[in-house]
Fold this protein.
Amino acid sequence: MARIGIFGGSFNPIHYGHLLMADQVFEMLSLDRLVFVPAAEPPHKPACGLAPAIHRHAMTRLATSSDSRFAVDDIELRRAGPSYTVDTLETLAARGDDLILVMGSETFLGLLSWHVPQRLPQLARLAVVPRSGSAFDPQSPAAQKVLRGIGADPFVPVAEASLPARGTLLVHALSLPVSASDIRERVLRERSVAYRLPPAVIDYMKRHRLYRER
């Protein structure tokens, strides 16, 4: 049984912050493969400023194509309607792999507003990655409320090459101070986005004139 990390998101656009986190999570969780899953219709993201899904998928492929550890799945682009993570996990779990759902701590704190969040820990183990410098406290009332609300196991910290047998995984991976919203704003204002995302993605954005308008 392969251990597969599932890294979903809008990737609007994908940048080096995403890639650095993926690199570290892959090693710390001893994954066999990490799969990026671009959302077609993110339920919690406003449509304004969201590039078409086909472009976000293409940019994610460009950013990851040189790394054999990574794959990109278009499962949410092939499914009509909102991109609910629970539906994606239902399909992927049927393949028989050991799934780990990777998410940032901000995403974790919003899980109770997701579609059928109680199914998530039944379909995949959760791995939560706090942003470097964030004030995320796994023992805080807010974090504990989410764990109780979705029926997940308590947090356990992950040390490299030593994956606990049980628990919601707390992964302290290095992150970069790069955000997709800042990149979009810089493109809109015709400022440089160099060193924030792969050159192939920058070229793609230019060719397709992405993020030039609000």
Observations:
- The chain is about 35% helix and 15% strand.
- The two ends are 45 Å apart (CA to CA).
- The first helix runs from residue 16 to 28.
